[in-house]
Amino acid sequence: MIRLRRRHLLQRASALLAATCALPRVLHAAPAQWPNRPVRLIVVYPPGGVSDGMARALAEPLARSLGVPVLIENRPGAGGSLGMDALARSTPDGSTLAFSAISPLTLHPLLARVPYDPMRAFVPVASVMRTPVLVVGTPAFTGRGFGELIAQARRQPGEVRWATSGVATIGHLVLAQVRAQSGADITHIPYQGGGPQLNDALSGQFEVLSTNVAAQQLQYIEGGRFQALAVGAPARIEALPTVPTLAELGFGKANRDSLFGIFAPARTPPAVVQMLNAEINRVLESDAVRARLRAAYNLPAGGGSEVFAHEIALDRRRNRELVTGDRAQFD
To answer: Rounded mean pLDDT of 134-142?
Structure first.
C-alpha cells in the first residue's frame, strides 16, 4: 500500500513538473490578454512622405480595432535598415511592429552589410499596399521625355543627377537598371526618405527624382513644376495615362513597384501574428482606408501572412539575380 501511494505521488510530481516546464511555451504560443499595452509602430521612413502618411492612416483604425493606442515612431535611415534593426532588437511579444517596404529584407542585404538577419529576424505579418514608382524631371532638367534624359546623360557623363529615397531602395534599383541597360553614366543622389528629397527636387538640386506616386507629386506635375518621365508599374496608371511605363520604354528590369507591409520581430507568438493579420486585413477592407489608399494612388494588398512571406522570397530571388548580374551599377 505504501509503495502504491509512493508511486502515485511520484507520478503526480512528475506530471506537475512536466506541466510547469511546458507553461512558458504555452504562454508564448497564446499570451493572455493581448494586447494589454500600447503598440509601437516603427515607420522606417522620415515624417512627411507617402509611406509615413499611409502608416498613420492605418494606425488610427488599427488602434480602435485592437483597443490600445498605436504609437508611430519614425526611424529613418539606411534605406529602412535602421528602423528594421530597431524592430529586430525589440521584445517579440506583439507590442512592437514596423511599417516598411520589403527592400530592407530583399535588396539592401544584397548590397551592404546589415546588422540583422533578413531571413530570420522578422515575421511578415501582413502586406498593406503596392505603390507605383514615378520618375520625374525637376526644374533642373531642361529636356523633354525619358529619351532626352538618357541622351543627355550619355553626352554629359556624370552630370545628370538622379535622387532616390536611399541606397538599396526600390528607386535605387530602378536607377541601377536604367544605367545598366542604357550604358549612361548617371550620378546617384541618395536621401533618407521621400519627404526631404521633395523640397530639394522643387528647388532643382538635381535633375531626376524617382519616388512613390502620390497626390502631392501629381499636383506638381499638373502645375508644371515636375515633368513626368515614366512610371514603374504593371500598366500605365490612371492618373497619368500618357506617361509610359519603364517596360514600354525598353527598361523591363527597371519596371518595378514597391510592396509595403507590417512586420514583427522573430519569435513573436503565432497566435499574435494571426490576430494582427486578421485585424490589419479588416482595416484594409474599410471604405475610409481604401479611399485613402486610392487618393495616394496606392493599391491595397492584404492577404495571409504566408502569402506575404512568399512574395518576399520571390522578390529576394529576383533581386539577387539582378544584383549578381549588374553589381557595379549599384555603387
So the answer is: 96
